[in-house]
Amino acid sequence: MGRDLTELRGLVAQCYWWHAIDLGGEVVTPGHKPLDVMQREYANTFQGIDLAGKRVLDVGAWNGGFTAEAVRRGAAHVTAVDHVTWNNPEANGRLSFDLVVQALGIPATAVDIDMDAPGLSLAGLGQFDVVLFLGVFYHLQDPIAALREVARATKEVLVVETYVDRTLDPRPLMMFYPGDELVGDASNWWGPSEACVVALLRMLGFTRVSVFAGSYPERAVFHARW
Questions:
Q1: Are 45 and 221 in contact (CB under 8 A)?
Q2: How many C-beta atoms surround the C-beta of residue 45 within 10 A?
Q3: Residues with Cβ < 8 Å from 28, sequence gap 6 or more?
Q4: What is the rounded distance in angstroms from the CA atom of residue 222 to the CA atom of residue 158?
C-alpha cells in the first residue's frame, strides 16, 4: 500500500489540478480550488437533485471533481466530456482525470469532444438524467450551440454554472470579450447576464429555471427542468 501511495503521489505531481480532490490515504490533489471551495460548489451544484441511480453527463470534467462527487451522491454512472484541458500537455488533464477515476473506483466513461467544434453534436452519447455544464459556457466562442446540445442530452435537469456580468439593465444581455479583458484570460469570450442565461434556457424549452448563488459573487448556478 505504501508503494502504491508513493506512486500515486508521484503521478499527482505530474498534473495541474484545478479541483482539490481527496483520493484517500491522505492524498489530496493540490487544487487551485481548495477542498472548502469545492464543497461549497458541490452544494451549489447538486442542491435539490436526487442522484441515486442516475446517469450523469459531466461536460467540462477536467480533473473529475464533479464526476467523483456525483458518484459519491449516488449516481450509477457518469460520462465525462472534455477536450481543451485533456489535450493540454502542461495541464496533463486527461492523466489527472484517469488518476481520480482509478484511485476512487469511479464508474465513469471519458469522451473527448471539442464543445466548440463546427457542427457539434452530442447525439451519439444519448440522453442523461442529469447534465452538468459547469464553468464552460463563457469559454466557448459559440456557447449557444453547445447549450443547445447539452439541453438535448438532458432528460430531467440541466445544471449550468457560469460567470455572469452583473448589470442593472434588466434585459437579457451578453458582453463579448475579444481579448483577455475578462480577468486576464484570453479563453474567456462571453459574459452573460443572469437574465440572459435564464432566457436562453427557456428558449430551449425548459419551463422551470432556478437561479442560485455561485461560489463567488460574479458566478451563478442555474437548474433547468422541463
A1: yes
A2: 23
A3: 20, 21, 22, 35
A4: 8
Query: Residue 197 is part of which domain span?
Result: 33-225
For residue 118, the number of C-alpha atoms closer than 13 Å in the C-beta half-sphere is 0
Residue 13: inside a domain: no
Q: What is the pLDDT of residue 159?
A: 98
Q: Residue 121 maps to which CATH number?
A: 3.40.50.150
Kindly report the pTM of this predicted structure.
Answer: 0.95
Rounded to whole angstroms, the Cα distance separating 77 from 192 reads 31
User: Which residues make beta-bridge pairs with 56?
Assistant: 78, 130
How many domains are there within the chain?
A: 1
Helix (H) or strand (E) holding 130: strand 128-134
Dist. CA 156–CA 89, nearest whole Å:
36
Joined grid coordinates for residue 226:
422541463
For the segment 87-105, what is each residue's pLDDT rounded down to a tens digit? Answer: 999 999 999 999 999 999 9
> pLDDT of 158-200, one tens digit each?
999 999 999 999 999 999 999 999 999 999 999 999 999 999 9
Partners of 174 in beta bridges = 192
**118 in a domain, yes or no?**
yes
Cell numbers placing 85: 484541458
